[in-house]
């Protein structure tokens, strides 16, 4: 094999001067995914925990605006999140990176503020994960307390009751994830039935 031809084969294509490379991007092996509509809906519900949000906020929507607000609110929020998804898809198609938001922030930010904006974006993302975890954990606690009050009308709930149930639920989830989940990985597949 000619050494010049091998140099030509490994030579990188010319880059756009307006694009600035921050870090090296790992190479990806592209595989064709065969995901149908039910698979995408199941995957979206599992990733976003939207089932928890819908089930916990349904009574609020029904009380504040009725079925009209519940139905059309779903369409409005879906269209708004579709715009966000299309913007993210455009960024992902141009800059395929596993880092997500903080990589996009570092790539698109002015050179002077690259590290600080990327750090703040990553920090906000981590705080967001913690807040979502706390919010999803408080939902069943509120529902357990509401059911207890419904079936025991003489019971007067105090704020510390909710806190104790919240801590017990958090302890249960931690023990489950650390002790039971490694032995029962099939439980993760329950939510991905359509995949």
From TrEMBL:
It is a multi-pass membrane protein. The keyword Heme does not apply. GO terms for cellular component: membrane. Keywords: Membrane, Transmembrane, Transmembrane helix, Transport. It comes from the Eukaryota. The chain crosses the membrane at residues 69-95, 116-148, 160-181. InterPro entries: AA/rel_permease1, Amino_acid_permease_CS. It holds the Pfam family AA_permease_2. It is found in: Membrane. GO terms for biological process: amino acid transport. Gene3D superfamilies: Amino acid/polyamine transporter I. One of its GO terms (molecular function) is transmembrane transporter activity. Its main location: membrane. PANTHER family: AMINO-ACID PERMEASE BAT1, TRANSPORTER, PUTATIVE (EUROFUNG)-RELATED. This is Choline transport protein. It comes from Fusarium oxysporum f. sp. lycopersici (strain 4287 / CBS 123668 / FGSC 9935 / NRRL 34936) (Fusarium vascular wilt of tomato).
């Amino acid at each position: 094999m000619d050494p010049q031809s091998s140099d030509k084969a490994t030579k990188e294509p010319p880059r756009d001067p307006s694009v600035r490379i921050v870090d090296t991007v790992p190479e990806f092996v592209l595989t064709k995914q065969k995901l149908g509509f039910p698979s995408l809906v199941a995957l979206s519900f599992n990733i976003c925990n939207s089932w928890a949000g819908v089930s916990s906020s349904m009574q609020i929507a029904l009380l504040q605006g009725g079925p009209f607000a519940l139905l059309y609110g779903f369409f409005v929020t879906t269209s708004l999140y579709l715009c966000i998804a299309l913007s993210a898809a455009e960024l992902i198609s141009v800059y395929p990176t596993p880092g997500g938001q903080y990589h996009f922030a570092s790539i698109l930010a002015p050179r002077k503020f690259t590290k600080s904006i990327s750090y703040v974006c990553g920090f906000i993302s981590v705080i967001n994960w913690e807040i979502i975890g706390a919010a999803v954990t408080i939902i069943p606690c509120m529902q357990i307390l509401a059911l207890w009050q419904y079936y025991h009308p003489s019971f007067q709930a105090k704020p510390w009751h909710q806190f104790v149930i919240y801590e017990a639920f958090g302890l249960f989830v931690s023990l489950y994830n650390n002790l039971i989940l490694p032995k029962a990985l099939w439980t993760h597949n329950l939510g991905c039935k359509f995949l």
